[in-house]
Amino acid sequence: MSAEIHPTAVVHPGTVLGEGVKVLEHADVGKQPTLSPRSTAKREPLPPTVVGDGTVVSTAAIVFAGSTIGARVILGDQSCVRERVTIGDDVVVGRGSLVENDTTIGDRTKIQADAYVTAYSTLEEDVFIAPCVVTTNDNFMGRTEKRLELMKGPTVRRGARVGGGAILCPGVEVGEEAFVGAGAVVTKDVPPRMVVVGSPARAIREVPDDELL
């Protein structure tokens, strides 16, 4: 096996590590979840974790069982990827960021330090998530059984950018190439290529041509 595993790291049985993978100090790959009795997460058996070629699982990072990590991904120090997450190639998950269960992240997306990506979210390709962004998925905040049918994180479309400290409310869609300003509170869908700012977020202009992918 060509993977490099630090002596203090834990790689659980069945985990698949690609060529050139690095698992650094005190990282934990393939960890089984321990769920609260009231957790809404699924409880079926999880397949082994798969980590693609050239990926780095940095110091004290955790990757849970049932997740698939693409090639050349950087999982920063103390980051956490929960179960049933799919991460594409060339993605960065910054230091201390948490990606919750049942989330999909597209190729080349960058998630900066201390961001929170809630369960049941979708981030498409080339998305930028700035530091300390918060996403949410439960409009009922834990009350009523109705919430179980409606629980859904945001969808952030290809090339969209979300500024530092912004909050995305449950189920909102941020359109392709849209720009969410720092500190904005997004309570409704953002049209493609639109710049939104404020609380609640409001549209102020379109993204200029020279900023498009």
Describe this structure in words.
This protein has 213 residues and is mainly β. It has one helix and 28 strands. The chain has one helix at 147-150, and strands at residues 4-5, 10-11, 16-17, 22-23, 28-31, 50-51, 56-57, 62-64, 68-69, 74-75, 80-81, 86-87, 92-93, 98-99, 104-105, 110-111, 116-117, 122-123, 128-129, 134-135, 155-156, 161-162, 167-168, 173-174, 179-180, 185-186, 194-197, 202-206. Strands 1-4-7-10-13-16-19-22-25-27-28 form an eleven-stranded mixed sheet, with no helix packed on it. A hairpin with a 4-residue loop joins β27 and β28 (202-206). The protein is globular and about 55 Å long.
Looking at the chains present, what oligomeric state does this protein adopt?
single chain
- Uncertain residue ranges: none
- Spatially, the strands of the biggest sheet line up as 1-4-7-10-13-16-19-22-25-27-28
Specify the overall morphology: globular
Number of helices: 1
User: What is the residue-averaged pLDDT?
Assistant: 95
Bin the strand percentage.
25-35%
Q: In percent, how helical is the residue content?
A: under 10%
Main β-sheet: number of strands, strand sense, barrel status?
Answer: 11 strands, mixed
SSE ordering: EEEEEEEEEEEEEEEEEEEEHEEEEEEEE
- Helix/strand-derived class? mainly beta
Distance between the termini: 38 Å
Alpha-carbon Rg, integer: 17 Å
**What is the total tally of β strands?**
28
